[in-house]
Specification:
Elements lengths: L1 H15 L5 H22 L6 H33 L4 H5 L5 H37 L11 H14 L1 H13 L4 H16 L22 H28 L4
């Protein structure tokens, strides 16, 4: 019975997305990266390896588009309740509070995972389309489907920490300004100091560290992002279940 109630909560969260800009955001973010990658391919004037082309798209995603999309996504999801001041009604439902906040977190993580899977398909598609547009200018090597899927998947695992941090801030504050300030500030620091030693532990830089040339550094960053994200999820659910949310 409890599992059925939790499943209905998740289904209800997805149904709410139909009346929001969330789905448009999730479609636009990976598409814009692939479009920019395609335009760069069309304009370039020298041979390029497939893997180098694909890693360029992954870098654009991890450095800027992924963190900025997470900021917007978590704010939009939280504002579904904050905007119409619906928390009083939702928290009065005969279900444990922790299930309500866990459901929201799982929906957000699912959306980030779907965007990541879409990007893993769109990056090679952008290269193939570019080859069709410039028949005499082909990318070198085989299409690295597996390599792209692996690196984008690792970025997703590493992004769980920053996703939960942004969601926690978005749910805790009724105004969208605090989570926006947090996210923009974190992204600014990440873009300004991508090679900082502390970047290994900085939530907004962890997905980028999946591209590190040092395999040990990349693996450690992903572990921090994944396990740290799970711990933050638990902490967020406990805190929000006890907080006075209005």
């Amino acid at each position: 019975m409890r599992l059925g109630t939790f499943a209905r909560l998740i289904a209800a969260e997805f149904l709410k997305l139909r009346r929001s800009l969330v789905l448009l955001l999730c479609a636009a973010a990976p598409t814009l990266v692939a479009l920019l990658l395609f335009l760069m391919f069309v304009r370039r004037g020298k041979p390029q390896a497939w893997l180098h082309f694909a890693m360029g798209g992954a870098a654009m995603w991890s450095y800027f588009m992924l963190p900025m999309t997470i900021i917007a996504l978590t704010v939009l999801v939280a504002q579904l309740e904050h905007g119409p001041r619906a928390w009083n009604h939702i928290l009065a439902l005969p279900v444990p509070r922790w299930q309500i906040f866990t459901a929201k977190a799982l929906v957000v993580l699912t959306l980030v995972a779907v965007m990541s899977m879409a990007l893993a398909l769109l990056i090679p598609a952008a290269g193939l389309l570019g080859e069709e547009m410039k028949a005499g200018d082909q990318l070198l090597g085989a299409v690295p489907w597996e390599a792209v899927a692996t690196i984008i998947g690792r970025m997703f695992l590493g992004s769980i920490l920053v996703t939960m941090l942004q969601l926690w801030a978005a749910l805790r504050f009724r105004s969208f300004v605090p989570p926006l300030v947090l996210g923009i500030g974190g992204t600014f620091v990440a873009v300004a100091a991508p090679s900082a030693k502390e970047g290994l532990y900085f939530p907004w830089l962890i997905p980028t560290n999946a591209l590190a040339t040092d395999p040990a550094r990349a693996a450690l960053a992903i572990d921090i992002g994944f396990y740290g994200g799970l711990l933050l999820l638990v902490a967020m659910v406990i805190h929000m279940s006890r907080a006075d949310v209005r």
